[in-house]
Amino acid sequence: MPYSLANPFNRKVLSEEILQEWQEILNETAEMLGVPAGLITRVDKDEIEILLSSKTEGNPYPSDAVAPYPDSGWYCEHTLKTKGLNFIANATKDPKWKDNAAAVDLNIISYTGMPIERPDGELFGTVCFLDYKEHEKNKLHIKMIEHVKRMVELTLRILHDEAQLRKQEKLLCELSKIYPICCYCKKVQGKDGKWSSIEKYVDDNYGAKPTHGICPECLEREFDCVD
Fold first, then answer.
1. Which of 5, 47, 81, 110 could bridge across to 135 with cysteines, CB 3.0–4.6 Å?
2. Measured between alpha carbons, how far is 96 from 13 in angstroms, rounded to an integer?
3. pLDDT for 52-78, tens place per residue?
4. pLDDT 10s digits, 26-36
């Protein structure tokens, strides 16, 4: 069983326009922070990938790099597991990180990263910034990274809401067509030939949960009956 759930926000869903906007913000933030590398990673089931890598001088990380998840060894994996700010001032001075491949092989010793959440509460990935030299914790820098995180999450929310709207529009279109419905119990016959309640039919096909009320005509009739 995969460590994480399938991530619906893949490169097909994330348009070139969106990725380009994220890329520009990543580039600009890395330059303002004075670091060689800024990354946006994406986790999907048993893999973690570098979705975007800043186009800054000295960046050793290529975009599209993929590692197994978990057990990637990436600093970002710890960020995802703790679901909070992950700050490493100097990996070579930290027993937990001194033997990490990033520190040993790439000489990337400082890291500041935050998890990016999807609208459904699951994790999309991380945004992080890395450097060859030691860094002290800087509240302003953390705030800047948090703004990037929130911008990405807002974009994901908009994409999610647009998808839900398309589903609702499709539902209205489908319900406007003629489909088999029992004139007695009002059950609907699906494409598989099985009959189910209209509430279940709508939920199974469109993921929409019904709410029950009473129309004005029925309210008046029932009210009159009570009197």
1. 110
2. 37
3. 999 999 999 999 899 999 999 999 999
4. 999 999 999 99
Q: What band does 226 get if pLDDT is binned at 50, 70 and 90?
A: very low
Q: State the pTM of this model.
A: 0.76
Question: Residue 158's CB: how many other CB atoms inside 10 A?
Answer: 12
Nearest CA-CA partner of 132 in 69, 78, 58, 80: 58
Between residues 1 and 214, the one the model is more confident about: 214
The Cα 27–Cα 215 span in angstroms is 56
Q: Which residues contact 108 (CB under 8 A, 6 or more apart)?
A: 37, 60, 91, 102, 130, 131, 132
- For the chain, the three-class secondary structure string (H helix, E strand, C coil) is CCCCCCCCCCCCCCCHHHHHHHHHHHHHHHHHHCCCEEEEEEEECCEEEEEEECCCCCCCCCCCCEEECCCCCCHHHHHHHHCCCEEECCHHHCCCCCCCHHHHHCCCCEEEEEEEECCCCCEEEEEEEEECCCCCCCHHHHHHHHHHHHHHHHHHHHHHHHHHHHHHHHHHHHHCCCCCECCCCCCEECCCCCEECHHHHHHHHHCCCCCCCCCHHHHHHHHHHHC
Cis-peptide, bond into residue 210, ω within 30° of zero: no
Q: Report the chain's mean pLDDT, rounded to a whole number.
A: 90
